[in-house]
Amino acid sequence: MKIIKWRDDEIKRVLEGIDSMRRTMDNMPLNAEAVEKAIGMYRLGHRDMVDNLLYSVAVSEGIKFLTIDKELIEFIEENSLPRENIILPRDIE
Description:
Blueprint: H1 8-24, H2 32-44, H3 49-61, E1 65-66, H4 70-78, E2 86-87
Parallel strand pairs: 1-2
Helix pairs in contact: 2-3
């Protein structure tokens, strides 16, 4: 078991992201693996927990993630995170 020291504002941001997704997305398969990956992204420096969670769910479920967020894509590439799940609008036929 790991003991992680979190600041209150970090915990609040994670919980807000999860709550937002649960309230607005009926079929979002939010699982422990995705939450763990999203927190890892946050700790690496990407502070948008909703994006982190959406991306992490896509990776953990093996589904595509449509985005136009260049900052997120750059972050993923710079941190050697899986890129194959991300598609851009131009990739849709």
